[in-house]
């Protein structure tokens, strides 16, 4: 068993299940205060529904998103996949991103939001965005550019189970971050960077948690029950 995180007992108890291109600095501050967020997409019925999916590394985000795409016809945007595609392109930016990913750190918000904005401009939605926002900077950048987060699906899985899944996946995935050293760094980054985002969104009442410890099909059944809570829910395809 990997020696993962050495956390204070109180933190472990509260989190046992690891559960910008901003228009101005004032906009970011407004987000933190829970104030109005400037948006390119007005909060109207014509705005495409956006479902964010988050969870620790190895929580099953990709698996659940694949199932949702088939059943609901959503446009899937994976922040991680977009970044890895940039790395694969061999561009100078891609090389910088590769180094950051290997170190288990979070790519700067301007880069990730820029890739998401470009992808969203090429489709009508509804959008299913997984692995984002991973930091408060990510959240501020996205909301200042594209509007407030209305719905966050959070997959809760214990660190032990996520570790087991990642090591198993690492045997065949070919991903540079599916190794013991990177896994430890990714867990630490998730707790320090991503959990504050969940705390902020939970304070707003837009986080919807699903226990994702079970098999993929059972978890998906729970996910389907949960996504109907979106302010403008998407209906399953016929």
From TrEMBL:
This is Adenylate kinase. Belongs to the adenylate kinase family. It comes from the Eukaryota. Pfam families: ADK. PANTHER family: NUCLEOTIDE KINASE. It comes from Phaeocystis antarctica. InterPro entries: Adenylat/UMP-CMP_kin, Adenylat_kinase_CS, P-loop_NTPase. HAMAP family: Adenylate_kinase_Adk. GO terms for molecular function: ATP binding; nucleobase-containing compound kinase activity. One of its GO terms (biological process) is nucleobase-containing compound metabolic process. The keyword Kinase applies. SUPFAM superfamilies: P-loop containing nucleoside triphosphate hydrolases. Signal peptide: none annotated.
